[in-house]
Amino acid sequence: MSKSTSGIPIATVQRAGLVTTQDIGRIGFADIGVPGSGAWHQARHRLAVTLVHDHIEDMYLPYPTFEILNVGLSLALHEPQVIAVVGSADVRIDGRPAVTGVAMHISADSVLEIDHLGPGPVYLALSGWQPERILRSAATDSFSRLGGPCGDGAPIKRGQDLLGHPDVETRHVGSFVRAPQHSMNGMSVIAHDDGLAAALCEEPWHVNATARSGVRLSGPELPMPQPIPSMPVVPGAIQLTPDGTAIVLGPDGGLTGGYPIVGVVASAHLDHMADLEPAQQVVFTRIDPASAAEEFNARERAIASAIVRPDALT
Amino acid sequence: MQHAAWFGDRAVLVQLNSTAERESITSWLALRMPDALIRRGMASVLVEMPAPDPQLLATVEHHLSALDQAATGLVEGEQVLIVTSYSGADLADTAAFFRVTPSQLIRAHTSQIWLVAMMGFAPGFGYLEPLDDPLLPWATLPRRDNPREQVPRGSVALAAGMSAVYPSSSPGGWHLLGTTTTKLFDPTDDANPTLLRPGLTVRFIDDADGRAS
C-alpha cells in the first residue's frame, strides 16, 4: 500500500482560516501512544466523502476532507474535480453562489471560495486529492504534531499546493444529502463516577472555550475527588480539573489523563461537541450504555441512507 | 475480582488491585477479546471496542472472573537497549536529591530493569516503571516545580517513580539525566512506528562504558 503522496498539483490554497486535513482518524495505534485524531464532526466528514466517492473508504486508506473551523478556505483549481461542501457555509465558484450538501463538478482554472458560517466545522471533499498520509491517515493531530501538509500537525497555509489527479467522472455529480443535519443543545453522558455524573446533569453548563483538544465548561461546583494515577482517556471523556472546570476531550485531547473522569459522552452525540460555541449553555443528561448503543445504530443508519444518488431519481 | 466500570458506550475501565496485575490482565483479555484495543494505565486497563456494545461490561467481568492467577505471563521477554549519554542538565541535582554521586545514580539507572507500563503523552512515549524492587527510591522524586517549555528529543528523564525517553522535543516536567540518539518514533514505518511497546522491558546503557571497553 502506498502512503506517500502522488500526483500533480490540482489546486493552490489562496486563503485559509483555521483549516486542517482530516479523515476518520489514525486507527489502531493508541496503545503505542498515537491518538486517533480525525474529523471532529464525523457525520459531516463522512457525508462529504461519500458524496464524491463510491465508498466511505477505499481498500485500506480513508478518504480525506478539509475541516474548516473558522473564516473559510479559497482554492484556485488547476485540474477538474468533483467536490462537495457539507456544513453551514457560503460557497462560490468563480464568484457565483453554489450549494452545500451536493456533489458538484468544478472545472480547471476555477476559483472555489468557502466562507465558514457555522456553528461547527465545515468539510470540503475533492475527488482527486491525495494528501500525504502518516500511519495510514491524513488526519492533522495538533496534540501529537502529526499530519498536515508539512507533517507537523500545523494547519494549512496560503500558497500550499494540493496534490492528486484530475477527475472528469460525472457519475456522482448531483448526489445530495437528503436530511438536514439536525443540531442539539444537549449531550447524553454515560456515567463513570455515579455521584459526579448525577451532579453534572443537575444544572446547565456554560461553554468557556472550544478547541479540537477539548471544550472547557464552567458550571455548578462538583465535589472534587483526588487526582488519580495516569489513565487512558478517550474523546468525549469529561475531566474535572482542580479549579472546577469540566473539559470534554476532543479528537486532539491526548490519550492519557490524571484528572478524575465524570463520564463519557455517548458516541452518537460526540459530533454535537464540535458545534458548541463560547457562551453557549449545555445540558447533560444521563444515558445507559444499551440506549446509547441503540442511538449509535440509529445514527449509523441515518448517515448510510442520507445520500441520494442522481441515478436513484430516474 | 478487579472492579470494572463503563467508560462510555464502547469501553470499560478495569481498576487494578496492584500494578503487578497489569500485564497478566492485559494479555488475558487481549487473547479472549481480539476485536478490542486494550490500553494500559498506571493503575487501570481500558478495553475499547470499535463500536458501542451493550454487553461489553458483562463480557469483561466474565473474563475477569475466570482469570487464572497462576497464568501470569508477565513480560514478553524482549528487552530494548537504549544507549544513553548521561550528561543531562538535571543529573547532578537529581543525584543530590537521592544523596548519591552522579556515577552512583547512573549505575542505579542502568542496573534497573524498566517495564513499559503504559504509553501516551506523545507518540512513542513510554512510561517506564521498575520491573523489580527500585534500586533507588525513584518514587520520592517529584516532577520539576517548573516544567521546561522545550525538552530536547531523545532526553532520558526521571520523575515520580518512572523513567522515560522523550521521542520528540516537547514541553516536559521530568528531570533530565541524559540523551540518546536511539529513534523512538518513526512515523514513516506503518508496521512498527515505535521502538517501545507496552509490556517490553528496557535497559539503559551508559555510552561512557561502551567507549571504555
Instruction: Using the coordinates above, name the CATH class of the largest domain in chain B.
Output: Mainly Beta
Indicate the low-confidence ranges of chain A by residue numbers.
Answer: none
Q: How many strands in all of chain A?
A: 22
Q: Determine the number of helices of chain A (DSSP H or I, runs of at least 4 residues).
A: 4
Helix coverage percent of chain A: 10-25%
| End-to-end C-alpha gap of chain B | 51 Å
The radius of gyration of chain B is 19 Å
Strand content of chain A: 25-35%
Largest interface: A-B, 43 and 43 residues
Instruction: Let me know the average pLDDT of chain B.
Output: 91
SS-derived structural category of chain A:
mainly beta
Q: Assign an overall shape of chain B.
A: elongated
What would a concise description of this structure say?
Chain A is 12% helix and 32% strand.
Description of the molecule:
The complex is a heterodimer of chains A (314) and B (213). In chain A, 12% of the residues lie in helices and 32% in strands. Chain A has 314 residues and is mainly beta. Chain A has 2 domains: 170 residues, no CATH class; 119 residues, Cyclophilin. Chain A has a 7-stranded mixed β-barrel. The relative contact order of chain A is 0.17. The N and C termini of chain B lie far apart (51 Å). In chain B, a hairpin with a 4-residue loop joins strand 1 and strand 2. Chain B is elongated. Chain B folds into 2 domains: 63 residues, 2-Layer Sandwich (Gyrase A, domain 2), CATH 3.30.1360; 134 residues, Cyclophilin, CATH 2.40.100.10. In chain B, the strands form 4 sheets. Chain B has a 4-stranded antiparallel sheet, covered by helices on one side. In chain B, strands 5-13-6-7 form a 4-stranded mixed sheet. A 3-stranded antiparallel sheet of chain B has the order 10-9-12, with no helix packed on it. The longest helix of chain B is centred in the N-terminal third of the chain and has 11 residues. Chain B has 213 residues and is α+β, with helices and mostly antiparallel strands. Chain B is 21% helix and 29% strand. Chains A and B meet through strand 16, strand 20 and helix 4 of A and strand 3 and strand 4 of B.
